[in-house]
Every structure is written in structure tokens, then in C-alpha cells.
Amino acid sequence: MHIIIGADHAGFFLKEEIKKYLRELNNDVTDVGTWSDQSVDYPDFGSSVAERVSSGEIERGILICGSGVGMSIVANKFPHVKAVLAMDTETATMSRKHNDTNILTLAARRTDGETAKEIVAVWLATEFEGGRHAQRLKKIETIEKKFISV
Q1: Domain at 79, CATH number
Q2: Count of domains for the chain
Q3: Which of 97, 102, 107, 141 is least surrounded, with the fewest CB atoms within 10 Å of its CB?
Q4: Is 9 noted as a catalytic residue in this protein?
């Protein structure tokens, strides 16, 4: 799978760890930065990932900031993006099964590397169930079309 990853300064070290892990799992990884733990603005990196997922260029993305909240907010502004902030494997699993999420957001200040790897692994491995959940996502798409002009 091809995955795009980005982080702000608070998420830099976890991004580097997750990027290595993704490659160990034989994924293609595009890293859009940041490149150090020097202070940067998270919307710049969140939008770089979300734009490419939104357009369909890359199937899935991972965003990392201190709390995971800011990146989640940015990503969910983009059409066709369904981003989830997951701090445990159950949230990651359910977000894929029921919501077909395509961007995973991690909280670097709340999630250690091993837990983050577990979250990433289950998020990548879990398939969307479809069925009644697809019907609900269609309703979300209708809302999106009403308020986002693209």
C-alpha cells in the first residue's frame, strides 16, 4: 500500500518511528515532513497529506501532532477525507470497519511508539464492512456536497 505521512514538530520523532515501521511492513511511504523537532505550523503538514488523499492520488495517510486533534480537524476539512484520531486499537478498528477512514491521526504526546505501531497495524489490516455503514457514509457525502464546493 502507498501511505503518505506528515507531522508537526511535536510528532516528528513518532513520525520517524512509524515511517520506519511502515516500510518494514513493505508499504511505500511518502513523507511530507516536518524534518525536525523545530516549531512549525501543523496545518501546513496536515493539508499536504489530506489534499493528496482527498484527490485520490494516495489511498491512505497518517498524521501526527502532539494531541492529534489539530491534524484531525485540518484533515477533515478536505472532501472525501475521513480522518480518525485513534489512541487505541479498538478505535482504529471500528473507524475502518464502520467509517472507512482513510487518514489516521496519532497523538505523539499521549501515545508511545509501540502502542502507535499496534494502532497503525490494525488500522491498515482492517477492512470496511460496507452494508448499513455504507448507507450512513452516503449520508455524510450528501452533507459534504451541500457545504463543500469542489
Answers
A1: 3.40.1400.10
A2: 1
A3: 141
A4: no
